[in-house]
Amino acid sequence: MDLSLDGKKAVVLAGSSGLGQAVATELVAQGAQVIVTSSNYENLTAAVEEIRYETACEATKIDCRVCDLTDPDSIETGLTKSIDELGGLDILITNHGGPTSKRFAETTLEDFDAGYQAILRSTIQACSIALPALRESSGSIVNLVAASTLESNVSGSIANVMRPGIYGLSKTLANEFGPEGVRVNCVSPRGVFTGRIEYKIEQLAEREGISLEEAKARREEELPLSRLGSPEEFAQAVAFLASPAAGFTTGAVLPVDGGWLNHGF
Please, which residues have CB within 8 angstroms of residue 106's CB and are 6 or more apart in sequence? Predict the structure, then answer.
C-alpha cells in the first residue's frame, strides 16, 4: 500500500531509541522528512546515523534536535525550531519514556508532579505548539500510549493516572479540529521487543530465578499470538495511521499488542 508520505514533514518526540526510533525509521523509509527529538544529543546523533544507514536515505531526510520533555522551555524551543527547520508540519508523533513503577502508597506528590510533566503536560504542550502548522497542512497527530493504560496494574500508579489523559486529549483534539482536516489518534503497544522489554525480561528472570528463555516465554504466553512483536511491525502501524491512507480515521485507539487487551469492544 502506498502511504503517500513522500515529502511529508514529521517530528517524532522521544525518538532516539526504541519505538520512537523505529517509527522515525519507517517514516523516513516511506519518504517523509523527519526530525527526531530527545533530551540527549549524543543519543540523537547516534540514532540519526543509524536511521540514515538503515534507510540509505539522503542526509537531509533525517535530522535531530534536543527537546527535553521534563522541561517546558526545552519543549517550546525544540519543537518550534523543528517546525521552522522543516518549513511546516504534516505529522506529529508524541512519545514519552516509561515512568517509575511504584504502588500508590510508595508514590509521593512530587513523583506525580514529575509524571504529569513528563507524560501528560509535555504531550499537551507539544500538540498545542504543533496545531497551527497542522491546521495549515490538514495534518495528523499520533500519540504513542502503552496498552497497559487500559488494563491498569497496581504497581503503575503514575502511569495509571497520567496516561489516560492522553486518550482524553486525543479525542478532544479529534473532535475540535476534525472540521479543519486534522486527525488525532493513539497507538497502544504491548509486547513489542525493544530494549525496555528486554530489560523487563531480565528483571523477571532474576526475580523468579529462571532463565532468560523461560522469562521471555512467559511474556510471549501473555499474548494470543504467542510471540513478541517487532519494532518494525509497530512502526508500520503508526506510519499507516499517520498517513493519508488512514484519512477517514480519527479519535481512535489502535492496539498493537499481539491481542493482549481483553476488551470485547
Answer: 157
* Predicted local distance difference test score (pLDDT) of residue 154: 61
Range 107-122 average pLDDT = 96
pLDDT in tens, 120-132: 999 999 999 999 9
Closest C-alpha among 127, 121, 117 to residue 186:
127
On the CB side of 212, how many CA atoms lie within 13 Å of its CA?
5
Instruction: Say how far apart CA 82 and CA 63 lie, in whole Å.
Output: 9
Positive or negative: CA dihedral 9, 15, 16, 21: negative
Following DSSP, what letter does each residue of 112-137 receive, concatenated? HHHHIIIIIIHHHHHHHHHHHHHHHH
CATH superfamily entry for domain 9-191+230-248: NAD(P)-binding Rossmann-like Domain (3.40.50.720)
Residue 24 has pLDDT above 90, yes or no: yes
Cα 18 to Cα 105: distance, rounded to the nearest angstrom: 30
Question: What is the rounded distance in angstroms from the CA atom of residue 8 to the CA atom of residue 88?
Answer: 9
In the chain, which residues fall in CATH 3.40.50.720?
9-191+230-248
The C-alpha angle with vertex 27 and arms to 25 and 33, in degrees rounded to 5, equals 105
